[in-house]
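Predict structure. Chain length: 437.
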Amino acid sequence: MNAPARANAPLLIQPHAPGRQDPALLEEFSELARSAGATVVGTVTARVETPNAAYYIGTGKLEEVQSACEATGADLVLVNHLLTPGQERNLEKALKRRVVDRTGLILDIFAQRAATHEGKLQVELAQLKHWATRLVRGWTHLERQRGGAIGLRGPGETQLELDKRMLQKRLESLQARLEKVEVQRTQMRRARIRNEVPRVALVGYTNAGKSTLFNALTGSGVYADDRLFATLDPTVRRVDGVAPLVLSDTVGFVRDLPHELVAAFRSTLAEAREADLLLHVIDAADELRDERIGQVDRVLDEIGAGDIPQVLVFNKIDRIEGALPRLDPEVEGRERVWLSARDGLGLDLLRDLLIRRFAERRFTGELRLAPDQGRLRARLHAAGAVRSEQSDESGWLLTLDLPWAAAERLAAEPGGHPLHALLLVAPGAPTYNPDTD
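Prediction complete.
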């Protein structure tokens, strides 16, 4: 007896090579489906040695999928692989149900999650690029003859050509708007570089707890949830409690992330690519955490961020019985912090590590300026280096906090000799050399 069809109730197809069936792949794909708001009603594994040109899976397996759809009442079929437009169309005709491949599913999740103007533009651009080769499905009801002779072109082909032109115009419009947003974001990023504020980026496999850790370190209210791709949009906040540095939360990685998304979310990934330090957040309770670390490292290599210093942050130790916060020494150049961002366990260890990494790069102290040294005072204010100021008839007393490199540069400028003299006697100067100034 066939089960009645249900809404958002997909049947999952998990292809695998001969002798290489991996349950983790199906588990992650099921989680992707649930993150999209679906209720999985069944799964079918399909051994694929040589992909079928028409259906990707073999015709015998196709019959099994048909029977499973009818038995479970599935109204949708999700395939954990990239399908060609032809394979997708043929599967839909044979199964009489909508078919979505892995890329289409991830794009759907991204479309649900994008909240900012930039994020929505990025998702729409990625979707349109993915759909561009699949437009023919929408106009088959208008087709007549497809011959190349004059007078035999059906209106469906005419409509398809019109639709492609409209889509191309929309793609060009989205690309132009995103380029403007990228210019604005680049200007903001350059301003941070000019001010020499250290930049730290959170990276990691999706659902590792990056946004929860971001909120814990910055006191922000960025949306966080226990599901894949809970947040997409790049968020940057200042972390004044640790040191004057900025922390950015980036989109989570996942295996086989569609190329359309990597291209569309280039501004998000740039926060990781241009950071001074990466906090690589890992779900400590994940049995596949070592594999996840390798997958994230591969994506970082792809976007040009593979050489940036990393700290491995093993999050969610609250899910491991008996686990305690700790800081491990460097292994292959990466320190390891074990913590629970949700419960606040071990956050002090991470803060201390950040202070150790960045505090020594800054100069803090008091500087007395005479009334005729207003130019240096103005330059220090413009650099954002003045934390407090007192004035009297003898001039100004400034409390300074600025990067050593910026202090050296200001000290070398005309009129910078008071700061020069202060740097000469300041303890712990890492790079200042009076013989060269």
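Summary: Residues 10-110 form a domain with the Rossmann fold fold (CATH 3.40.50.11060).
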